[in-house]
Structure formats: C-alpha cells, structure tokens
Amino acid sequence: MDLDLRKLRYFVAVAEHRHFGRAAEQLYITQPVLSRQIRAFEQELQCALLVRTTRSVELTTAGKQLYEEAPGVLAAVDAAMRRVRDVDRAVQRLVVAFSPGLHVSEALRAFTSRYPDVETDVVPARWWEQDMPLRDGRAQVGFLRRPFDDSGLHTTPIGHEPRVACMPAEHPLAHRGELTSADLDGERMLDAPTRRTSSLEEKFELIAAGHGIALVPLSVARSYSRPDLAHRPVTDAPGVQTCLAVLADRREKLLRDFLEIATATLRRI
Q1: CA-to-CA dists, residue 209 to 169, 174, 179, 212, angstroms
Q2: Which residues form the signal peptide (predicted)?
Q3: Are residues 132 and 223 in the same domain?
Q4: Could you tell me which residues are beta bridge partners of residue 57?
Q5: For 117-130, how does the pLDDT look when each residue is reduced to its tens digit (9 = 90+)?
Q6: Which CATH number characterizes residue 38's domain?
Q7: Is there a domain that residue 169 lies in?
Q8: N or C: the chain end with fewer CB closer than 10 Å?
C-alpha cells in the first residue's frame, strides 16, 4: 500500500482539533469531503482511526499510534523535499536536532562565523525518540541528552547536568532549599514508565495540577519556568549526560568541522 500523504495530513488535522468542522476550515475543504477522505484512509489502512459521535471525535488505539507517528513521517518527507531543492539551488545546509532544554545557538554562531555560506537550521528532538531526526534524515547532527538509542551512532560527550524535582509551587517540599531522594519517598512521581506524556508542556501542566512530581534535567526546568511551579535540586539524584551524535557512517568534512567547533563551544557553556 502506498501512503497517501494528503490523507495523512487530513487525519492529523482532525486528530488535533477532535472536530471535523474545525479541521475542514483549517484545510480549506468542505466537511463532507474531509469525512470521505478519512473513511477512505481507514479503508486503505484496514483499521479504524476515529470514533465518531454526534458531539465528539476520539482516536482509537490505532489512531493514537498513527497520530504519534505522523509528525515524524511528515517531517521526514518535508526534509527530503528540502534537500532536493537545496541540491537544485547548490545550497549547503547543516541541520542540528536538539533535546528539550538544550541550547545549540552558540555553536551555530561559531560555525557560521567560519562557514558563512552554509545555511544552518534546527529541529527539535522529542524526548522519547531523540535519535529519530538523525535516522530519518531531518538532521545531520544532534545535541542530545541520554538516554537514547545510540546504536549506529557516533557520540561525543559534552557534559553532565543535574536533575531537579519539579512540583507545584505550593507543595510542602517547595519550601526547602534542596532535597534528597529519600524526601521523595511516598510522593507520586510522573516519570516514565509511570506515566508517559506526549510533550513536556503536558507533563508540566499535570505537575501544576497536582498530579505528581517529576525529576527533570535542570535545563528543562529552566526552559519551562512558570510561577505555579517550583524546582529543587536533588543532591543524590544521578545527573544526565549531554552529547553530540551523528550517524556513524557520516564522514563529510563539513560535519566533522561542525563537531569540532560545537564540541569546543558547548563544553565551555
């Protein structure tokens, strides 16, 4: 079966809005046309993606899986089309994937000062599949935080960062300057595999709502700072390693030079 990318984009719009009418408006098509396209997509896949009622649209188990897979598929196709256009225009481009909370901008500035004719771009790496932008071609190099699947990758250690306990600002532990792991005994933790969230925004929203505490890297907590949340250092929690990663078989001089520049730059930060 050939994947119809147009139907996949239609499905993503319905999954995001949970409403055919609003999705149709976003796509600039009529609702009956959208409904027919989604039904045809389900027939092609031979599984139901949506549960329709008079008031709502919900995802089936298969629909949830496809909704999770779709962004990577669409992004990979878009990246491939961009590479084709770059070749046609004789454009050199370097794309760096980055884990949530990590900042690669200083390394990109240092690289651009040496290679002003190379266009640079970034793509976020989702925390549960940080290596995917490297494997599907969206990025040539990643500034990532372990753990991730490093099979077939060459990695260069950059540093370590501590983990902190993130909690509602009114939580009793939020009034302490620092914590130990023993202080968290008996607390409900929002860490995988206890409860996997689809985004950090979702995780922090659940924390703020009182659903539990999460141990997160310090840079993540700082990047998602908000007044109703507090984070405190956990003195005996193991830190997490940051590293640069590339596919092991990539040998381009441009990529090697970026790794050299980025390693020196990021280790100073």
Answers
A1: 11, 15, 21, 8
A2: none
A3: no
A4: 52
A5: 999 999 999 887 89
A6: 1.10.10.10
A7: yes
A8: N
Quote the tokens at residue 171: 């939580």
As a whole number of angstroms, the distance between CA 46 and CA 44 comes to: 5
Which residues, other chains included, contact 140 with Cβ-Cβ below 8 Å and sequence gap of 6+? 94, 95, 96, 134, 246, 250, 252, 255
Determine the longest span between alpha carbons in the chain, in angstroms. 60
Tokens of 90: 């004789």
Could you tell me the residue range of the domain that residue 139 belongs to? 92-158+240-268
Do 209 and 150 lie in one domain? The reply is: no
Dump pLDDT digits (tens) for 40-81. 999 999 999 999 877 778 999 999 999 988 888 888 888 788
What's phi and psi for 51, nearest 5 deg?
-110, 115
- pLDDT of amino acid 194: 54
47 vs 198, residue with greater confidence: 47
Asked if 168 and 228 count as a contact pair (C-beta separation under 8 A), the reply is yes
Please check whether residues 194 and 96 belong to one and the same domain: no
Burial (Cβ within 10 Å: 0-12, 13-18, ≥19) of residue 223: middle
Tell me, yes or no, whether 146 and 169 share the same domain.
Answer: no
Q: What is the CATH number of the domain that holds 208?
A: 3.40.190.10
Residue at 78 is within a domain: no
- The two structure tokens encoding residue 8: 């996949």
Query: Do 176 and 211 belong together in one domain?
Result: yes
CA distance 258 to 241: 20
**Residue 216 within a domain:** yes
Q: Integer distance in angstroms from the first to the last C-alpha of the chain?
A: 49
Number of domains in the chain: 3
